[in-house]
Amino acid sequence: MKYAVLIAALAIACAYSADNVFAEEGALRIISLAPSTTEILFELGLGDSVVGVSTMCNYPSAALAKEKVGTFSQPDYEKIVSLKPTVVFATGLEQAFTVGKLKELGIRVVVSDPSDFNELFESIRKIARIGNKEAAAERLIRGMELELRSIDSRIALIPEQQRTTVFIEIWYQPLMTAGRNSFINDMVRRAGGRNIAYDSVRPYSYFSVEEIIRRDPACIIIGYMTKADNEAGIGNRLGWKDIAAVRDRRIYNDIPPDMLLRPGPRAAQAVEKIFKRLYPQETL
Amino acid sequence: MPVLRIEKLSGGYGASDVIHDVSFDVEKKDFLGIIGPNGSGKSTLLRLISRILSPAQGSIALQEKDIHRIRLKDLFKEIAFVPQNTIIHFPYTVWEIVLMGRIPHLNRFRSETRKDFEIAERSLALTDSLVLKDKRIDELSAGERQRVLISKALAQEPQVILLDEPTSHLDIGHQIEILSLLRKLNRESGLTVLAVLHDLNLAGEYCNRLILIDKGKIIRQGLPAEVLTYQTIEEVYKTVVVVKENPFSHKPYIILIPK
Amino acid sequence: MKNRTKLLLLLSALIIAVILGISKGSVSIPFVELFQRQNSAILQLRLSRIVVGILVGAGLGISGVIFQALLRNPLAEPYVLGVSSGAGLGAVIGMLFGASGIPIQICAFLGAVLSIALVYTLAREGSKIPIQSLTLLGVTVAVLFSGIIVFLVSISSNESMYGIMWWLLGSLAVFNLNAMIFVAFAVIIGSVTAYFYSRELNAISLGEEEAVHLGIEVETTKKILFVLSSLITASIVCVAGIIPFVGLIIPHMVRLLVGPNHAILIPASAIVGAMFLILCDIISRSAVPPLEIPIGIITSLIGGAIFIVLMRQTRKVK
Questions:
Q1: B140 in any annotated domain
Q2: Taking CB atoms and an 8 Å cut-off, how many pairs form between chains A and C?
Q3: CATH number at residue B19
Q4: Would you state the pLDDT for residue B57?
C-alpha cells in the first residue's frame, strides 16, 4: 500500500515537473501587444512579469504604468528588442504582419485570436501555462462561466424566433459589421441576441444598408473603438428611420468599447450588459 | 568614288512614301544644298540618309558600302548631323556637349583620353567657340548654340556633315556667319557638306551644287546657275521672280517680284 | 567645384547620416555603449535598417534618374510603369491562394515583373517603344492593379490581408537576411550597369534622334535600361513596400547640385538617395516615440516640401 502511494506521488511529481520543462527558463518577461491579452495577464496575476504593452492597453490602471512599445498596429521594434522579452503576445488580423517581423527577429510570439468563448477559455489556459498560473486561470474561467450560465438559463425560456435581432455596427464610414467568426458575435449570441449579419463569414466586413433595412433589426449596438455618435445621428441617416431599432430608439452606444471589443476577463460582464439592453423587461 | 551615292531612294514616315525614286551622288568636298518648297520632303530625305528612317526602296552607300550594313557606331564616325532645333532642355556645359561628339569613338568602359579632349578643343576652336567652353548651353544665344552643335558634329571627325536648315532660326548676320564657317571648313578641312536650306539666295551663294526637290522628286540638280533659273523657280514655287547675278560673287541672285 | 570633390563631400555627409542613424532610436543609448554585448540586438536592428535604407534610397534615386531620362519627363519616377501595384497584386494573390511555401516577397517580385512585361508589351510598336504610350499605359496599369488589389482585399476572408495595407505603406524594418541580400544584389548590379550607360543617357536626354546620330542603338539601350531600373524598383518594392517621392525628387535635387551629366548624376543620386532615406527613417523612428510613423508619410511630407521649394527656385531663375 505504502509503495503504491509512493509511486503515485512520484508519477504526479514527474507530470508536474514535465509541465515545468515547457515553462520558460529564467525570469519571465512578457510583452503584450493586445489590450485583451494585457487584461488577462493582469487578471492571472502575471502583471509583474509584464515589461511592455501597447499604447492601447489601458486596463487595469496598473497597465498604464508599463513601458509602451508602440501602437496596436505599429510596434516599436527597437523598444521591444531592448526590453528583452521571453514572450510577446499578439492577436491576428492587423497584427499578423507584425507577428511575422517579430518572428524574423527570433522573438517568441504567441498569437491568440479567439472567435468565441470556448476559444477564449483555451487562450486563457494557454497564457496561464506559459506563466505557471493554471490555477488562477481555472478560477477566472469558472467565474466567467457562472456569469454566462446565469444568463443562459434566462434565455433558455425564450424561443429562438422571439430572440432580439441585433445589428452590430463596428464602423460607419464605410459601414462595417461583425460576422459570425467574430468574438462580439458570440457575445451577442450568449446574451440571447441574433446577429443579423450571421451569414457573413469574415469577422469584420462591409455590410449593405439595404440588407439592414430588409432585415430590420430590433436593436443596434454600436461598437466603435472610439467615442461614438449619438443615436440621433444614426436616425438621420437616409432610409434608416423606418428600421425597428431606430423607431423604437433601441440604439445602444453606452457599452464601453474597452469591454465590448475585447475578448478578455470582462467579456462576461459585457455579455451581461448586452443582455440587459436586449431584454430590458428581464430583471436580475 | 563618290562619298555618298543615293540610288532610287523612296521612303517616308509611315505607310506612304514622301520621297520617290531619288538618285544623286555626293562627291568629296562638295557643298551640296538641298532646296525646295515646304513639304517637299527635304528633311525626310536627310533623315533617310542619317538612318533615322528606313528606306522603302533604293539604297544609300557611304564609300560604296550600304549604310544599313555598317554598324551604327562606325557610321557616325563618318557622318555627323546638326539638327534644326537646337534647344536643349538640360543645363549641360558647352564642353560636355562637344565631348558627346566623341561618343562614336569611345569604349563604354573607358573614360575620355587626352586625345579626345584635344579633338574637342580643336572642334571648338574651329567654330570660334573656345571662349564659350564652360558656359551652360541654355545661357547661349541661338547663333552661339548653333556653332556649339557644329563643334559637336566636328568632334565626331566626320567626312560628311549633314545639316537640317541650319540658318532658319538665325538673323541675317548669324546666317552669313554660320554659312561662312561651313564654307571655311569645307575648303580648308575638306569637309563634305550636305545641307537642307530654305533660303535660295544663300543656297546659291554658298553651295557648289544644288538639288531642287518638289513633292519628293528631284526637279533639277547641278550648278546653282543651272538650277536657279526663273523658269524653274516659277514652276516649283509658283511665284514670278527675276534672276540676276550677284555683282560681288557672280553667283545667281533672286529678286522677288511682289504681286 | 570639381565633380570628384562634390562626390567626396556627399559621401562624407552620408557617413554622418549613418552615424546619426546608428545613434538615434526610440531607446536612448550613448553611442559608445551601443557596441557593448548587451546592446548587440538593438545595434543589429539599427544597422539592418540603415543598410536597407542605403540600398533602397540609392536604388530609388538611380531608378528615378533613369526613368526621367528615358521618358524625358521630369515627373517620371520608379513606380510610373506600375511596378508597385504589380508587386502588391502579386503579394495579394500569393496570400489569397495561401502559397505558404513561397515567400510573399517572391510573389510580389513576380507580380512586379509581370506588370512591367504587360505594360511593355502593350506599348510596343514593332521593335520600338514609344515613350508616350509607355507612360500612359504605365499609369493605367498601375491604377487598374490598385483597384484589383483593393477589391481582392475587401472580399477576402484571409486575415493576413490586413498586413498588406501596412506593407504597402513602406517600411525599412527588413530583418530577413535573404531579403536584404536579394535587394543588395539587384541594386548594386543595376546601379553599376546604369553608370556605364551614362553616355547613352546623356545622349538620349538630348533627344532620341540625337542619340541615334551619335551611333547609339537607342531602342536596345532603352530596353536594357528599362529592364534594369524596373528590376531595381521591383526588388525594392517587394521587400520594403512602396516608399513614395524618393525616386521623384532625388534626381531633381541632385541635378541642381551636380548638373545633368549622368556620369556624376548617377553616383550622386545614389548617395543623396541613401542619405535622404536614412534621415527620413531617423525621423520616423524618433519623432514621436514609441510610435513609429510609417516612412512613406515622412518621405511624402519632406519630399513634397522640398519639391515645392525646388519648383519655386527654378521659377525664380527663369
A1: yes
A2: 69
A3: 3.40.50.300
A4: 92
Q: What is the pLDDT of residues B140-157, one digit of tens each?
A: 988 899 999 999 999 999
* pLDDT tens for each residue of B60-108: 999 999 999 999 999 999 999 999 887 888 889 999 999 999 999 999 8
Question: Do B70 and B12 share a domain, yes or no?
Answer: yes
Q: Which one of C199, C206, C209 has the shortest CB-CB distance to B106?
A: C199
Count CB pairs under 8 A between chains B and C.
59
Give the gap in angstroms from C-alpha A150 to the nearest C-alpha of chain C. Answer: 34
Interface touch C292/A69, C-beta < 8 Å: no
- Cβ count near C268 (within 10 Å): 28
- In this prediction, residue A15 carries a pLDDT of 42
Closest chain A residue by Cα to residue C168: A97
Question: Number of C-alpha atoms within 13 angstroms, CB side, residue A191?
Answer: 29
Asked if the Cβ–Cβ distance from A70 to C163 is below 8 Å, we say no
Distance CA B251, CA C3 (A): 52
ipTM over the 0.90 cut-off: yes
What is the per-residue pLDDT across A61-84, written as a single tens digit (0 to 9) for each? 899 999 999 888 778 888 898 899
- More confident position, C126 or A136: A136
Q: What was the pLDDT predicted at C159?
A: 59
Q: How many domains is chain B built from?
A: 2
**Checking DSSP bridges between strand A219-222 and strand A165-172, what pairing results, if any?**
parallel
The x, y and z cell numbers of residue C24, run together, are: 538615434
Which of C210, C216, C260 is facing B83, going by the closest CB pair? C210
Residue B118 lies in a domain: yes
Find the helix packing angle between C262-286 and C246-258, rounded to 10°: 130
Q: Is B248 among the domain residues?
A: no
pLDDT 10s digits, A180-208: 889 999 999 999 999 999 888 778 888 88
Q: What range does the domain containing B120 cover?
A: 91-156
Query: What are chain A's domains?
Result: 23-138 (3.40.50.1980), 158-278 (3.40.50.1980)
Residue B213 in any domain: the answer is yes
- Is residue B74 located within the same domain as residue B137? no
Model pTM?
Answer: 0.81
Write down the pLDDT at residue C92: 83
**Domains in chain C: ranges and CATH:** 3-317 (1.10.3470.10)
The residue among B156, B178, B194 that closes a domain is: B156
B218 and B189 in a single domain? The answer is yes
Provide the residue type at B226 as one letter: E
For residues B165 and B56, state if they share a domain: yes
Collect all residues from A whose CB is shorter than 8 A from any CB in C. 55, 68-71, 73-79, 81-82, 84, 92-94, 96-97, 100-101, 104-105, 113, 201-203, 206
